[in-house]
Design brief:
The protein is about 80% helix and about 0% strand. It has five helices and no strands. α3 crosses α5. The longest helix is centred in the first third of the chain and has 31 residues.
């Protein structure tokens, strides 16, 4: 039987990896595929390096440019919110509702031009899938983790 410290370490790694890794990969995709953006310009001024856009096959560039970073960031958001609302009795519903509210709000702000970007219903759909996928993995982890505890 695993000690309480081992279980905490496993939980920390599970949540940490599923928050940090998608953020880093999403950021790398954003910088590498989109090329000249606000973020690359800001980093270039601070660090003093120029970023070159990666050339990909057209279909892969389309997916990466339009959907991949947002998908990964929404996935990470669901994990982060699940930690924030961990002790709530309705954790899953609160995380789902808060995440969906956030992504829809961002898209609507893009539609009104109050926020940089392009409004896209497909973004909302794919980010919703990312959130549901994250919640599925969280539920699966928690069930396995709690079974071992009993």
């Amino acid at each position: 039987m695993k000690s309480e410290n081992t279980r905490r370490c496993i939980r920390f790694l599970f949540y940490g990896i599923n928050i940090v890794l998608p953020l880093l990969i999403g950021g790398a995709v954003y910088i590498a595929v989109l090329g000249d953006t606000y973020i690359t310009g800001f980093i270039s001024r601070i660090v003093g390096i120029q970023f070159r856009q990666i050339v990909l096959p057209a279909w892969l560039e389309y997916i990466a440019r339009n959907f991949l970073s947002d998908f990964l960031w929404a996935y990470s958001l669901a994990f982060a919110l699940s930690i924030l609302f961990r002790y709530s009795r309705r954790n899953t519903m609160i995380v789902l509702g808060t995440s969906l509210f956030f992504i829809v709000t961002i898209e609507l702000l893009q539609k009104t031009r109050a926020f940089s970007g392009t409004f896209d219903v497909i973004d909302i759909l794919l980010e919703s899938i990312a959130i549901l996928l994250a919640l599925f993995f969280i539920k699966l982890f928690e069930e396995v983790h709690n079974e071992k505890r009993n």
